[in-house]
Amino acid sequence: MDRIATPSRTKNIIRKHDFFFSKSLGQNFLIDSNITTNMIEKIGIDCRDNVIEVGPGIGSLTQVISEHVKKVVVVEIDKKLIPILKETLSENDNVEIIHDDILKIDLHKLVETEFDNEKIKVIGNLPYYITTPIIMRFLEEKVPVEQLVFMVQKEVAERMQAKPSTKQYGTLSIAVQYYCDVKIIMKVPPTVFLPQPKVESSIIKLDVLRQPRVSIKDEKLFFRIVKDAFGKRRKTLLNALSSGHLQLDKSLLKKVFDICEIDGGRRGETLSIEEFAMLTNTVLESLEL
What number of helices (H) and strands (E) belong to the chain? Predict the structure, then answer.
């Protein structure tokens, strides 16, 4: 089967359907079949897997995914791409095309209807401006997903994988690592896209943990503490948590720091996810006294 992800075929498809790229939707189509093939090999999907693909474009990646898995459901927001997908993927019998917004569609109903609530993998070349909301929606809504593999802006991938005491480490690092093992598996240059983006991309693999990485008594409080700690990176933990959204009392915080053996003069970017968990649970216990 001729690959869609080539410069000539992509241009022919676009020309035939009089398609115009939407900047507002962040559309960049893959035109290098080596990238799609290498990506699938590194993911390690097989005939037992069910896949949701987010933003398939003209089906460049979908075509290759469908050759390896049990079923693929693609969710595309641009109605102009639906007839194109129906044509380019007409020979792929295990592909279902859905016109919808991945940020609005009922994900649990989608998995129940299309996959009978079996575990799924999620793959996509994500628009850079909505990368984080898409990823966090799948994770926070407890969708039965075992793996997410996304092509994202290189800097965003580095932030997801970042470790404490690095410039990239922040709320996104902790949010993603709370739910997943994170690994950047490929770097992708701008030259393999049409049109070429102004930034470099990376493919990041998120293997969803059976249980969150740390035991938290109150997830909402945990993420509020993390957000406050990183709200003003130059502030010490004591000042950041006492002046942030939670407005925690300084005397309470000093007691909490002593119990946790955490120096209140440290900055949030130096704390591990385990230390944030201990801090959260101790704050909660102190507030309940």
Answer: 12, 9
